[in-house]
Amino acid sequence: MHHATEISETESGLAMELLTAAQMRAAEEAAMSAGKVSGLQLMERAGRGSVDAALSHWPDLAEGPHHAVVLCGPGNNGGDGYVVARRLLDAGWRVEVFGLGDAAKASPDARRMRALWEAAGPVQDLREAGQGDRPDLLVDALFGTGLSRSIPQEAVTAWHAVRTRAGVTGQVRCLALDCVSGLDCDNGQMLVPEGADALSADLTVTYHAAKRGHFLKTPPSAALKVVDIGLEAHPASLTAMPRPGYLRLLDPGRVEARRWLEDILPVAPGHHKYDRGHTLVLGGGPGKGGAARMAARAALRIGAGLVTLGVPPAAVQENAARLDAIMLKPLRGAEGLAEMLEDGRLSAIVLGPGLGLGEETRQIVRTALGANRRSVLDADALSSFQDDPDALFATLHDQAVLTPHEGEFARLFPDLAHGKRDVSKVEAAALAAERAGATILLKGPDTVIASPAGAVSLNAALYERAAPWLGTAGAGDVLAGMIGGLLASGRIAPHLAAEAAAWLHVEAARSFGPGLIAEDLPEELPKLFREIGL
Ligand SMILES: NC(=O)C1=CN([C@@H]2O[C@H](COP(=O)(O)OP(=O)(O)OC[C@H]3O[C@@H](n4cnc5c(N)ncnc54)[C@H](O)[C@@H]3O)[C@@H](O)[C@H]2O)[C@@H](O)CC1
Ligand SMILES: Nc1ncnc2c1ncn2[C@@H]1O[C@H](COP(=O)(O)OP(=O)(O)O)[C@@H](O)[C@H]1O
Ligand SMILES: [K+]
């Protein structure tokens, strides 16, 4: 049985891996060379699965025969398109097919699928695609994972011409096979001719596993479904580190999330507060304490047994007026921190939010890292090293997590920064983690977590998990606190703590909904935990 799976509904208890185009080809080739399946069978399953997924996504299209236009490219993606065309015709639809490129150069599988279609209907010239009345469904089978450069202008023109065909039937639903044509499946860039409007889709149906490009940058498709075509999967538990070389997508269903978090969260019968750990959050001077207070609150809510806020003596009074369960200590610079860290029960440190830029912060960071504590470095703790990132890297260790947004990342890793790199965000974070010798969590709707040993994960607030209201002042401070709260128990690797915190951060935002401000995030956690069944 091959059926469409809406990935947000995964309840298999397993983490999903996002593939590169090369990894997808390798999975296909492994199955074919083992004699388990032929390329033609895979293409038939892909086409059939696409039709089933589209009709379940748009139930009104399943109610009766409609009208489709299918645009087929020169490769195997086009081959999938011919299968879709044939199956819709079998279901009684009116189907027009337009082809791009030299049919004789197509793969044997794609040629065979084209021939099967041609037994029933013609393949028309792509330049004619604008003629005719408006279809209910436009199928983009122009280019898939084999795209190596910008798609041709004639493909762009034809797609837009079909979308804007005259007619009274209303909306044209756009279905992309495997990916929106032009999408670089490895890095999420849209490769279209200069000045051309990129293609888009209402639904993308992809095969076997989602590809990296589906989740990086702003997706050109509103929805994504993954169809099983019978290739071997590599299930892995979220409580183990991700496989090096693969990109783990954090998207467990509710059942799996409960099992995962039961192992990750530091709460168990018989534990007392010191088993859960003690997180120290460092705060700034008078009037600068909000960010650290929110981080401290988040650390406590996510499960640290104790949280202490350390602030300069001048800021004690105002913080005392704002704190209850969180303890407060005056802290005199790096020397004061060193004294405080003589207490071995302080098991994790969060530093950066509201801390201030400059030499004093650099000294505090060096002291914290030198004391070999699990540490989260955010905001000013990162930006203070912008003139000499190597000085920071020299003191970092594998128990540290850095949580830069794109701007802070650019200050520490200018050569890997957005816009200056032809590497993807995934590669940039992985290279940065290797250079820093610490875990890097690079923020955004597509948050990438990378660790020095090669583990890379993606927490995507995209598609059904979109939470644009999370981009609000202080949300990052809360995330740093959440990671620091999870690190305190010492039970899990920094990478796994960063994963769980990032996932919960987005789930808390989704649970709260629009109108969210940063203070709401920690307060939403108890409700979220209850909903997950913890
Ligand atoms: N890998 C797999 O396991 C499976 C792949 N299938 C389909 O096969 C697709 C990949 O097929 P292909 O590797 O043939 O690649 P595509 O069909 O994505 O396109 C590659 C073809 O277009 C040409 N081309 C690439 N960039 C171009 C450009 N900018 N302008 C003009 N021509 C260009 C290439 O020379 C090649 O002929 C997948 O996306 C998927 O739709 C499915 O049939 C099912 C299984
Ligand atoms: N459009 C978005 N969708 C989902 N999450 C977002 C979006 N924009 C920002 N975020 C998240 O919000 C947080 C913002 O953090 P940051 O940039 O450090 O802000 P601040 O310094 O104000 O706390 C990050 O966790 C980031 O991933
Ligand atoms: K496509």
UniProtKB/TrEMBL annotation:
It holds the Pfam family YjeF_N. Homotetramer. In the N-terminal section; belongs to the NnrE/AIBP family. Belongs to the NnrD/CARKD family. Residues 24-237 form the YjeF N-terminal domain. Binds 1 potassium ion per subunit. This is Bifunctional NAD(P)H-hydrate repair enzyme. Its cofactor is K(+); Mg(2+). Bifunctional enzyme that catalyzes the epimerization of the S- and R-forms of NAD(P)HX and the dehydration of the S-form of NAD(P)HX at the expense of ADP, which is converted to AMP. This allows the repair of both epimers of NAD(P)HX, a damaged form of NAD(P)H that is a result of enzymatic or heat-dependent hydration. It catalyses: (6S)-NADHX + ADP = AMP + phosphate + NADH + H(+); (6R)-NADHX = (6S)-NADHX; (6S)-NADPHX + ADP = AMP + phosphate + NADPH + H(+); (6R)-NADPHX = (6S)-NADPHX. One of its GO terms (molecular function) is ADP-dependent NAD(P)H-hydrate dehydratase activity. Residues 256-532 form the YjeF C-terminal domain. GO terms for biological process: metabolite repair; nicotinamide nucleotide metabolic process. AMP binds at residues 443-447, 476. K(+) binds at residues 77, 140, 181. The keyword Ribosomal protein does not apply. Its EC number is 4.2.1.136, 5.1.99.6. SUPFAM superfamilies: Ribokinase-like (SSF53613), YjeF N-terminal domain-like (SSF64153). PANTHER family: ATP-DEPENDENT (S)-NAD(P)H-HYDRATE DEHYDRATASE, ATP-DEPENDENT (S)-NAD(P)H-HYDRATE DEHYDRATASE FAMILY MEMBER. Keywords: ATP-binding, Isomerase, Kinase, Lyase, Metal-binding, Multifunctional enzyme, NAD, NADP, Nucleotide-binding, Potassium, Transferase. It comes from the Bacteria. (6S)-NADPHX binds at residues 76-80, 144-150, 178, 291, 354, 405, 477.
